[in-house]
Each structure stands twice: as C-alpha cells, then as structure tokens.
C-alpha cells in the first residue's frame, strides 16, 4: 500500500532541532575546541556565533562557518573533572586487571578520538562539528575503593529503565570493582527525602524482567542546593541520572553547583527518550519497544476501518518534536496511508492538502489509516483554541491533543463523510 508522509510537496520542511539535538551537562555556551591536523592536539577556541535555543541541557546545533580552513574542525566537548580540578591524580583503569575483560586492554579509547556529526561533507567546506568519542580510557580519576556512586531515575516511564539500572550496577561492580552504590528513590526529591537503598548485582539481578522503574520516579522536586548538599554530606562522588529533557536541565544545574563548590563529583546523564531523537548515539533505549507496541494500535485501527464503509482510523503516537516512532511504526506496519510528523509541516485544505488526500484515498480503497505524532499540527490547534503555554512539573510544554481535533476536522470538512472515524 502506498504511504504518504505528511503533505508538504511544495513546502520544504524547515530545519528540525529534534533531529540533531545533543544532550550535554553544561550551560548553553559549550566548550569548543579547535583541532589541528598538523600537530594532532586540541586547543581551546572562543565559541563562534551559533544559533541555539536557550536551554541548559538540550541544544540544537545550527552550524555556520565554524572553521576557518578545511584542515581544522570544531570539537564540541563535554565537561570533565580536570576542567576545574586540574591537579587530580589519575590511576590505571581497573579493567586492565580483570581476567574476564583482559581483551579491553587493546580497545581503550584515545582521548583524541572524535566522532563526526556529519558522515558526508563537501570538499572545501568547513569540516563541521565533532564530538568526543566515548569508551573506557587507560586512566581513571577514582580508586575503586573510594567510589561512592548513586543512581536516580526522574520523569516519566520508559521501557528499559530497569535494564539500564541493572547494567550500571553490574558494570560498576563487576568491571570496576565498585561496591558502594546507592539507589535514590522517587526522583530528585529522593536526595533530600533520605529515600535510598543499597544496590548490588544480587539486588538488581532480576529487575530487567519487570516494567516501570525499580527506584520509582517523580516529576519536579529539583532543589539544586539541597541535592548537592546531600551529595556532599553522603560522600557521593559519582552521580548517574536517568531522565529526559527536564531531568537533564536539572543535571546541568547539579554539575554547575558541584563545579562551583570544587567537589570531586562526576555527573553522568543517561538520556531517557523513546523518541530516538538524539544524534550521534546509536539508539536511545525503549525505542524498539515503542515501535513494536505502536504497531499493535495501528493493526487494531486497520482491522476496524476495514470492516466498515469509508472508515477512517487515527492513531496518535508519542513524539513531541520528532516523528521517529510514528515513521518507523508506519514503515513496519505497511497498513498506514498517511503519516504526519512534526519535522514535516502539512496543510489541511486546498490542492495537495490532507482533506483532499483523505477523500481520494476513500474513493480508491474505502478506508484509511492515519498515524500522527502528538507534536504534529500544533500550530493549527493553537490558532483555534488560543491555548496558554502550560508546562508540566518537569518543565515540558503541555501539548494540545491532535487526535480528537483532527478527528472532528475530518468529520466536518470532508465532502465524503466517513462512516467511522476512530
């Protein structure tokens, strides 16, 4: 069956921040380094003019002539303890002594390894933005017996959270010989509510088989000073924060306060987004499960509309600013006639509009399935209802419901009146 992906044949999609946004634990002015191929070393460079939203943790990169010549490129770096504690001693990575992971000795990542944002560049054009490559280093800045780590989950639920918790605990314990690991219960407020538990490989052995989050979660509750006070009082020196946009804004504030106090505390953010809209990483956890479950809803809609005359099924899927779940589920299902996503604007009326397409498809097939990401078409709804810019406890914008609105519009505006719109 043919698939129409939105309706913008004559309107090219604008730049989409969601396709290239980066999670980082830093304020909105990043650390930019210039790398010279001549001497193979990094050197700091004043940040160029970059158009970016005013966000702490989630930044959209729009690049314009960042490099003066094609032999140089810009490295968008991540903060490191040695940025504000330059005299920290380093130690051999515990992986070098592990019999089970002896092969890792040959695969330590060099500090000068980088990953390019764009795979393809044109000859003579700026080499663009690169990112520090992740992976185990030969040297670390903590002795295993001195590490006191903590893990916290914040915000909404996502498939795979318990697997992430389990792997952090088992990785720290089995690979890095860390034995003191705390679980902070109930989100950020758990730091100052004294809700903690000790985490060991035995404690987390089976949690990956369960849904939800083993540590429980909550929205909001972020008090930077209280959280860092608690981190300092408990002697915690590694903080692992699992969460989304709002959570990482909070993580950035924690990092800034830690830096301000000069504490030897590492803050690591693990992006929790099933939308899979973070560039550079291979895939965000929970995305595959979301696509698989979305196909169940699509199949149910297809069965229902196929059973009636001129049936129209609307399946609203997750995706505030990106349509990866909607698009992947559409491609996997093969029963979808139209997919609407935030990255590609569409119009409703007129030649080539949504309503014309619906009528044409109903004439041809007698039924229709539309998949729409929750963030698509928000400009149309907002123009009609004059909605206030409301946010949830985590600071995320509350979106208007595109599903019922689109259903009502189809019933009113289509000359071929659908017998069923679900």
UniProtKB/TrEMBL annotation:
Cited function: Catalyzes the phosphorylation of D-fructose 6-phosphate to fructose 1,6-bisphosphate by ATP, the first committing step of glycolysis.
PANTHER family per UniProt: ATP-DEPENDENT 6-PHOSPHOFRUCTOKINASE 1
GO molecular function, one term: ATP binding
Keywords: Allosteric enzyme, ATP-binding, Glycolysis, Kinase, Magnesium, Metal-binding, Nucleotide-binding, Transferase
Enzymatic reactions: beta-D-fructose 6-phosphate + ATP = beta-D-fructose 1,6-bisphosphate + ADP + H(+)
Record field: transmembrane: none
Record bears the keyword Lipoprotein: no
Residue span(s) of domain Phosphofructokinase: 149-387
Protein name (Swiss-Prot/TrEMBL): ATP-dependent 6-phosphofructokinase 4, chloroplastic isoform E
Gene3D superfamilies: 3.40.50.450
InterPro entries: ATP_PFK, PFKA, Phosphofructokinase_dom, PKF_sf
GO cellular component term of the entry, any: cytoplasm
Biological process annotations from GO: fructose 6-phosphate metabolic process
Cofactor(s) essential for the protein: Mg(2+)
EC number in record: 2.7.1.11
